[in-house]
Give the backbone structure.
Amino acid sequence: MQGKACGRQEREEADEYEELFLGVAGRVEKMAVAVLVVLLSLLLASQLLLQNPRIRYLLVRVEQLEGTPYGEHGALVRSGP
């Protein structure tokens, strides 16, 4: 009889641990989903901001270092021998 009581107690402890684990895992999952949604929203917002040339010029250093666009002055053709 004592073996059955001991087994039942172990099973109850295991069930309690499983409930605690599932509760913590659920909260962590909700936080991970919330962080993912925030990060995706920030990515979308930054990409939309970079579509504006004025904002892109202020945010992206390479834009400031770029030379004159090709279309403004045409091709640079060397003349002569």
In short: The chain has a mean pLDDT of 83.
